[in-house]
Design brief:
The mean pLDDT is 95. Helix content is 56%, strand content 15%. The chain is globular. It has two domains: 198 residues, NAD(P)-binding Rossmann-like Domain (Rossmann fold), CATH 3.40.50; 134 residues, N-(1-d-carboxylethyl)-l-norvaline Dehydrogenase, domain 2, CATH 1.10.1040. Helix 11 packs antiparallel against helix 12. A ten-stranded mixed sheet has the order 1-2-10-9-8-7-6-3-4-5, with helices on both faces. It is α/β, with parallel strands linked by helices.
C-alpha cells in the first residue's frame, strides 16, 4: 500500500501501481462474479469488470426494465444473464447491488446460496450495519467485503470509458477464507477505482448517509434554494438568480475546484470575490455545523435507516416520492435551470 500525506495525516491507500489489473485478474481467475441488481451501481460495475476481462454474470428479475437494459448492454440470457436465484447459485462472489430496500426483500433468496467459501460483496454498508432492522446477517463461513465507489454507477462507467477512475473505499467485515483482502482489492481495481482507501462498514454508511443528506445533495439544494429565493425576493430576474446561484457554480467554478482545489480557486479569482469568500466562509460553516451534528447523530442512532426502511415499506411510496420530486421539478429555480441549460451553446 502507498503512504500518502493528507495534510499532515498519513494514510495508506491502494493504487493500480501496487495492485495492477493483471494481478487482480490473476487473483480472481477462478471466480465467477455474480452482479445481483442492474440499477444504480450494477451496470457500471458489471460492464467495467467485463471489459477488464473478469468472469461476470448478471442476476436480475426477468421482464423488468433493468433486465432489458442488461440485454441492451450486451449480456445474453442463459450465457451471462440469469434470474437472481440462478446467478446466486453460479457465483462464487455475489455482488449484492440491489437497492437497500431490494436487499432486504431478496435476502432470504441470496442467503441460501451463500455456501462456505463464497464472498458476499456490498457497495454500501447499510444492510449489514443496520442488521437489526434489515435482517441481513451473513453466515460466518463466507467473506463479507465492500467496495464503495465515491459516485454514481454512471460516473464510474463514464470515467472508465475515458481511461480514468473513480475513487472507492473498501472494507472487510468478515474474512472467513483468508483471501478476503486480496479478493476485495482485486474487485476494487476491477470495477475501475482510481485509488482505494480502507474503512469499515459502519464508517462507510455513516459518511455516505451524512454526505447524501449534506453537502452532496440535501444541503446543496437547500443552499441553492435559499440564495435563489433571496435574489428573486430582492427583484433579480430568474435568469440572473439562477446563473449566479447554480450555473456559474456547476459549469465554471466546481470543475476548477475539482481540478485544482478551493485554495487555488481563492487565489485565482478577483480580489473582490476573494475578499468576500474569505470573510464569509467561516460564517456559513459555523451556521450549518449544528445541523450537521444533528444529521450525524440521526445517522448514528439508526434513525435515518428507520425512516428510509419505513418509507420504502409503504404501498404508496412511489406515488409520494414522485410528488416530492415534482415539487423540485416545478419550482421556479429548476424551471429556470431547464431554460438555462437549453440555451447553452452545445444545445443550440
Amino acid at each position: 500500500m502507498a503512504k500518502i500525506d493528507f495534510g499532515g495525516t498519513i494514510e495508506e491507500v491502494v493504487t493500480r501501481e501496487e495492485f495492477s489489473l493483471s494481478k487482480a485478474q490473476e487473483t480472481l481467475t477462478d471466480e465467477t462474479i455474480a452482479v445481483i441488481g442492474y440499477g444504480v451501481q450494477g451496470p457500471g460495475q458489471a460492464l467495467n469488470l467485463k471489459d477488464n476481462g473478469f468472469n461476470v454474470i448478471v442476476g436480475q428479475r426477468k421482464g423488468g426494465s433493468s433486465w432489458d437494459k442488461a440485454v441492451s448492454d450486451g449480456f445474453v440470457e442463459g450465457k451471462d444473464l440469469f434470474e437472481i436465484e440462478e446467478a446466486c447459485e453460479k457465483g462464487t462472489i455475489i455482488q449484492y447491488l440491489l437497492s437497500d430496500a431490494g436487499q432486504i426483500a431478496q435476502w432470504p433468496t441470496v442467503k441460501k446460496h451463500l455456501s462456505p467459501g463464497k464472498a458476499l460483496y456490498f457497495s454500501h454498508g447499510f444492510g449489514v450495519t443496520y442488521h437489526d432492522q434489515t435482517g441481513i446477517i451473513p453466515p460466518a463461513d463466507v467473506d463479507v467485503i465492500l467496495v464503495a465507489p465515491k459516485g454514481s454507477g454512471t460516473s464510474l462507467r463514464r470515467l472508465f470509458v475515458a481511461g480514468k477512475g473513480l475513487n472507492s473505499s473498501f472494507a472487510i467485515h468478515q474474512d472467513a477464507t483468508g483471501k478476503a483482502r486480496d479478493r476485495v482489492i482485486a474487485l476494487g481495481i476491477g470495477v475501475g477505482s482510481g485509488y482505494l482507501f480502507e474503512t469499515d462498514f459502519k464508517k462507510e454508511v455513516y459518511s455516505d448517509l451524512t454526505g447524501e443528506r449534506g453537502s452532496l445533495m440535501g444541503a446543496i439544494q437547500g443552499l441553492f434554494a435559499a440564495q435563489y429565493d433571496l435574489l428573486r425576493k430582492k427583484g433579480h430576474s430568474p435568469s440572473e438568480a439562477f446563473n449566479e446561484t447554480v450555473e456559474e457554480a456547476t459549469q465554471s467554478l466546481y470543475p476548477l475546484v475539482a481540478e485544482n482545489g478551493m485554495d487555488w480557486m481563492y487565489a485565482n479569482c478577483s480580489t473582490t470575490a476573494q475578499r468576500g469568500a474569505l470573510d464569509w466562509w467561516k460564517k456559513f460553516r459555523d451556521a450549518v455545523s449544528p445541523v450537521f451534528e444533528d444529521l450525524y447523530d440521526s445517522v448514528a442512532s439508526a434513525n435515518e435507516a428507520r425512516i428510509t426502511i419505513e418509507a420504502n415499506e409503504k404501498s404508496d411510496y412511489r406515488k409520494g416520492l414522485e410528488n416530492e420530486l415534482d415539487e423540485l421539478r416545478k419550482s421556479e429555480m429548476w424551471q429556470a435551470g431547464a431554460a438555462v441549460r437549453s440555451l447553452r451553446p452545445e444545445n443550440s
